Amino acid sequence: MWKKHRNWLTPVLFIVPGCILFGTIIIASSVESVWISFFDWDGVGQKSWVGLANYFELFADPQFYVSLKNNIIWLVMFMAAPPLGLALALLVNQQLAGMRILKSLFFIPLVLATVTVGVVFGWVYDPNYGLLALIFGLFGATAPALLADEHFVTFAVVAAALWPQIAFCMVLFLAGLNNLSSDIIGAGRVDGARGWNMLWHVVLPQLRQVGFIALAVTVVGALRSFDMIAVMTSGGPFGSSEVLAYQMYEQSIFSYRFGYGAAIATVLFAIMIVFITWYLRVMVRMERETR
């Protein structure tokens, strides 16, 4: 039987464990989260059916719109990561003396835990002894307490999170640059492409798929932002730096409102589904174009 059907049994045996894991951890957990959002539940006792009450309360909650606004700020600012990552990749890909050392320095954010990055930037933003205070002190000024200012705290946290995100995008583009077609590059040089023309008409078209992957990873990273906020501000001051993921965590863990937290998670999941659907459609179209 094995010899007769091994052409299809072999791939099935490799795929089934992954499908079971994905179905259990992702699909089943997502369905369970949506189901819990229709209950009033403290996470321990009996669930009490409330229907759409959690959603009605959520859409009437001012904190929800603060969190949603902060998610949009994260998304807009994170859009700087792919172009900056591309610029750094083009820089460190040059065959120049000392470039290996410079490349290793840009890799540092990737080997640091996000918690470490948050702690480091917490020191940087310290208005008394941090690097920002030293810079302002050179000009005889007092550094602002960015993490205590409700108007600037989100921008400060996103700026800290951009450091490793830019480095990640740089690595993606470096991989793409190392896989460029030498034949196409050579043909471009024969046609007189140099500098900007070479980059725009020869290099960037070959980095299209890599760039799209970098964009997708950046968008998902912005929407699921949590750990930097937990380390640097814990959602403060007065909830002004919360995003949907952190609000979900706070409502579920600290307020014992798992149904309400699940409603927030469902809304965030719906937002991500819109992006994922668009992403898959574009990827399928790109695959068809390359055939």
From TrEMBL:
Cellular component terms (Gene Ontology): plasma membrane
Keyword Manganese tagged: no
Membrane-topology annotation of the record: Multi-pass membrane protein
Any one biological process term the GO annotation gives: transmembrane transport
Predominant location category: membrane
Keyword NAD among record annotations: no
Alphabetic keyword roster: Cell membrane, Membrane, Transmembrane, Transmembrane helix, Transport
Compartments, record wording: Cell membrane
Transmembrane segments: 12-31, 72-92, 104-125, 131-148, 155-178, 258-280
Domain ABC transmembrane type-1: 67-281
InterPro entries hit by this protein: ABC_transporter_permease, MetI-like, MetI-like_sf
CDD domains: TM_PBP2
Signal sequence, start to end: none
Family: Belongs to the binding-protein-dependent transport system permease family.
Protein name: Binding protein-protein-dependent transport system inner membrane component
Species name: Rhizobium freirei PRF 81
